[in-house]
Amino acid sequence: MDAHTESSEPVPETAAATSAAAAASVLDDDDLLREILLRLDLPIALVPAAAVSRRWLRCASGPAFLRRFRARNPPRLLGVYVNTGEAQRLRFVPLARGPELAAVVRRGSFDLGEEAGSVWDCRNGRLLVFVDGKYVVRSPLHPERGTDNLPEPPVPAEAYTILLYFSDFLFHESSDDSVSCTSVTVMCTARQAWVHLSDLQAGVWGEGRYSGMIDIPVPGSLRGCEHHALLANGKLYMMCLPHHIIGFDLHSTSSFCIELPDGVQYEYLESIGLSCAKGSGFFLIHLKGFQISVWLHRMDHSSIGSWKLIDTIFLPQAFGHLAELTWSSLPDVVRVAAVGDNADFVLLRIQHKLFYMHISSRTVEEVYEANPAHGFLYGVYPFMMPWPPTFPVLNGGNDHDQ
């Protein structure tokens, strides 16, 4: 008699079921999911990922995760606005690399019109522009938001009675969708300087506040610094002295003076650039001849802090075949046009040409050449991808969490 033995082996699962179970074991683990999302190359890739479910949205938009993502994938440069003096019109030069970023730029509306002459600030996808005698806010990546006309920033009455004053106009550091700015008026005598600040909230300028007085180390040496101020981590830094940076704490309204590192001097407007640093402090890019020095300044409790030399770059070596023999015969031919956050990149103006240099990799490329008949590049303003991304609001139909 034949013996019949039933197999003790389980019925094999289908390949699809096995794959689904393996995927679920990974994607149902929040820590593993965050590690996967962290390896997406671009911030815009987080948006469709966050639309999968409320749990994916929670993982992709959490503050701790976003800090890690930004450290690994900093916001990208989408392009620059340039002013060549041709009818004082701003032109946008797209610099997005890769099809995803190029698609972002194509969907935007970057033409600011015939009367746009200068960019006062750019932060999180917004431009603060001076157009036909008025200050306006534009959002090129979201043209449906239209244009916000801002009231004239206040200038204190005493500014007209002193030796010198100059103004700047800066976006707040917040990343929300509100249009909020700070008007900065620096006032000075031959020996002292102070600042008047006023905040714009909901279309109305608030009551002004004054900083403390600060003594000018070398009397009478203060220089104008419009468009040469940095607002970073609650502090305002202004490059307006040959050997010092004047600083103001926006919360306490206290003032301080930072001496420049040995060998660094503010000789002319485009010899120095300032850049915000993660956490606290700021970077300083110093150009002398054909050499760039990158310095990091960290603040301490006394608001004095210390300098650290991060990098030194010899430009003819970095430029390689892009360098021209005639440059060596021209004094101060290289100019710092703009600096990226965390000293990630620097835009250099050399006569009618604009060059982009990624600082850590030493990658250099020519990105724009102006028509010599229209003058030099009078202004260069980087336009970065906004951070953080604008995440979707999910309804119940998109919620796959159990």
From TrEMBL:
InterPro entries: AT5G49610-like_b-prop (IPR056594), F-box-like_dom_sf (IPR036047). This is F-box protein AT5G49610-like beta-propeller domain-containing protein. It comes from Panicum miliaceum. SUPFAM superfamilies: F-box domain (SSF81383). Residues 118-391 form the F-box protein AT5G49610-like beta-propeller domain. Pfam families: Beta-prop_AT5G49610-like (PF23635).
